Amino acid sequence: KWQRNKFVGVSLVGKTLAIMGFGKVGSEVARRAKGLGMHVIAHDPYAPSDRARAIGVELVGFDEAISTADFISLHMPLTPSTSKMFNDQSFERMKNGVRIINVARGGVIDEDALVRALDSGKVAQ
């Protein structure tokens, strides 16, 4: 049976993108997303606020970033503090149907928690 909704895209205009890790790659993703008409926020405890301001990006806390985003793009390094940073508790705070793009190391996501979030519809498939 044809299920049209499985093949229809999502408009990015006006959607909120949270960049998690605002280094060189995260900054470039933010520039491009702004060009696509997205509202871009970022979380990075080490990012200089002047660089974010120059691009038109607001630096926010972790909880605000994950709870307000329609799309979350991961760009942080894998360290002891970022290992499994995206777990059951963080997925619970996200919007239903959030889309996650992981450009970071796989270890920043708890894979078992991600499977549960996908199965429940919390994270879009």
Automatic annotation (TrEMBL):
Database matches in PROSITE patterns: D_2_HYDROXYACID_DH_1, D_2_HYDROXYACID_DH_2, D_2_HYDROXYACID_DH_3
Domain of life the protein comes from: Eukaryota
Protein name: D-isomer specific 2-hydroxyacid dehydrogenase NAD-binding domain-containing protein
Residue span, D-isomer specific 2-hydroxyacid dehydrogenase NAD-binding domain: 1-124
Alphabetical UniProt keywords: NAD, Oxidoreductase
Matching Pfam families: 2-Hacid_dh_C
Native organism: Nymphaea colorata
GO cellular component, one term: chloroplast stroma
A GO molecular function held by the record: NAD binding
